[in-house]
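Subject: Interface between my chains keeps coming out wrong

I've been trying for a while to get a sensible model of this assembly. When I model each chain on its own everything looks fine, but I need the whole thing in one frame so I can look at the contacts. Pasting all components below, labels as-is. Any help appreciated, I'm running out of ideas.
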Amino acid sequence: MEIQTEKILILDFGSQTTQLIARRIREQKVYCEVHPYYLSLEKIKTMSPRGIVLSGGPKSVYDEDAPKSDPGIFDLDIPVLGICYGAQLMTIQGGGRVEKAQKREFGKSELIIKSSTGLFANMEPEGANQVWMSHGDRIEELPAEFMISAVSEHSPNAAIRHRHKPLVGVQFHPEVAHTLIGKDVLRNFVFDMCHCQPKWTMQSFVESNIAAIREKVGSDQVICALSGGVDSSVVAALIHRAIGSQLTCIYVDNGLMRTGETESVMRFFREKTGLDVIQVDARDEFLGQLTGVSDPEKKRKIIGHGFIKIFEQEAGKIKDAKYLAQGTLYPDVIESVSFVGDTVIKSHHNVGGLPEVMKLDLIEPLRDLFKDEVRLLGLELGLPEEAIYRQPFPGPGLAIRIIGEITPQRLEIVRQADVIVLEEMKLAGLYRQTWQSFAVLLPIQTVGVMGDERTYEHVVALRCVDSLDAMTADWSRLPYDLLGRMSNRIINEVRGVNRVVFDISSKPPGTIEWE
Ligand code: XMP
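Reply #2:
Try treating it as a single job with all components included. I did that and got this:
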């Protein structure tokens, strides 16, 4: 389902900020794709990119095993921007020299622009500009026909350009927020040098994808597992807009959802979109199988297998189902390059599970999008803001927030505590900026006193974290008053709880969920 549009190609040399380059370019409403540095020249030509960006990377260009792209890219007459490692590679492949710097340049630096053209068009000549550097090597000698376009204290060749060809390189990282001129530099690259048009909008994405989905599906049927999360909701809304009643969604209520969650998902889709949603009430089945199970991995397995079984059963009833729609996102499909020691690891993540079991073809309309773009797409499709900006919720649901055995009583406690946590986070205006905030029920009881009575009741832990991608996280520095209110309300309003604690572990070494 290739959607034709003008694009910038980013060749990845393993930098941690490669995806950020893509984000920054897309923010300029220009489409771009990340590919590994070894993409062949032939392939690059067939993609006809408007421009090519060479990312940074952890290696040194003079290392024996330094990753190198085909130097033929510099002769395609396509603008190339080298960033850090990319600029150094452009240098040595052009015949210049890169060496270990006497002084590493790391962090903020002042850039003095020497030539207000190309990347620095419309910027103050000789003006001081804050940029962010992170390099141990530096360009010592320019290739023939290159000239300096900016300098910094420790980099006499902080930005370079070819005198005649559209080739530019910067030692700093325009993609990070600390580079205050980063946006202008990238804008100059994509618009002035690559002559792109700012046409990549969610509206254009919807239009072109609807056409592509219609063409691919024809008169066949598509099924989609709706979880209530942002990704599956957006997938369902988009495909529904494309093919209407040829889409059937299946929502499995496993009894482990938060208060009111199932109802709100159903209400939106049935009332607002007219989407055909099969709601399967499998609460008793899941809770029955989980009885007496405390081991976290066992819980996950039971829930995972149970879901596949029920989904298969229901999908089997839909005649002529040919496609399965999934909410796979761009970070999952980027064939990103990472280095461990001297070994290149190519990781190509793919979302497994249902498709192999069911022998259905996949439709993954979000494959090209980052999470925040999915949210914009959801808004464009008319999904309510509360659904779009919902905090992530794990597939196994509340089962992994009840440490130990899952019983109806314990589920009720965690549900009630969860409502209070979310209400208070929203009232404090901190819900959206916090990655996740939730209650965990612990498998211990502690002594307390309520009125004149001694109590011996449950403990609830509050887990609130800040994160960008869930790979790492830190505990949220919530105001004490807010913590106090949550604690008071949980202890007063939730029967069976007499103590609340706050989790102050980061990830790693902790994980976000407790199980
Ligand atoms: P951890 O606990 O590994 O969680 O730090 C990272 C993020 O993933 C979510 N999570 C899951 N999501 N199925 C999911 O769909 C799962 O089995 C699962 N386990 C954890 C978690 O809520 C956090 O956002």
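Reply #3:
Confirming on my end. The chain is about 30% helix and 25% strand.
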